Amino acid sequence: MVAGISAEDRVISLGSGLAAIPERSMLAHARGEVLFICGAGISWPANLPDFRDLVLDVYAALVTTVHKVLNALPRGVCNHWQVDCSALTERQSAEVKRFLIGDYDVVLGMLERRLDDQTRGDSRVRKEVANRLGPKEAIRRQPTVHSCASLIVVG
């Protein structure tokens, strides 16, 4: 049994040797309540950004004032790092604080609610994430990783 999945949950198999996802999670995704971002180990060889860089790219495209603050943070800093958020709103400062502790998925959700007041598939944040993770010529040119065939593009 997979951790967090009860015996009563129906699961959807993604294929032989791949993860099974609870049906309720897939339904939550369809309602725009869940965003699945996968890539541990496949991101770099497939020329995809890591989660931190993905968040930075999204902010660069959508909110340059916050991006300047986030981009100035060295990798590996923690919540004890002093950040000047005086030019940011309270909600933007909260996003920076969550970024500092590495809660990148939470940061994207906060940004999505702030910009679009929604968490659905047609939000600007989700469109930008899809744009950053969408098919790239580099992926087609570099089939160096066996698991590249397992990449699922969400758009």
Overall geometry comes to globular
Strand content: under 5%
Helix content: 40-55%
Query: With helices defined by DSSP (H or I, 4 residues minimum), what is the helix count?
Result: 7
- What order do the SSEs take from the amino end to the carboxyl end, as H and E? EEHHHHHHH
Report mean pLDDT, rounded to a whole number. 77
Rg from Cα? 17 Å
* Total beta-strand segments: 2
Find the structural class using helix and strand composition.
Answer: mainly alpha
Task: Record keyword descriptors for this entry.
4% strand; globular; two-stranded antiparallel ribbon; mainly alpha; 155 residues; 7 helices
Description:
- The chain is mostly helical and 155 residues long.
- The protein is 43% helix and 4% strand.
- It is built from seven helices and two strands, in the order E-E-H-H-H-H-H-H-H.
- It has helices at residues 23-30, 51-62, 64-71, 90-100, 104-116, 124-133, 137-141; strands at residues 11-13, 20-22.
- Helix 2 runs antiparallel to helix 3 (64-71), helix 2 (51-62) packs across helix 6 (124-133) and helix 4 (90-100) runs antiparallel to helix 5 (104-116).
- The relative contact order is 0.14.
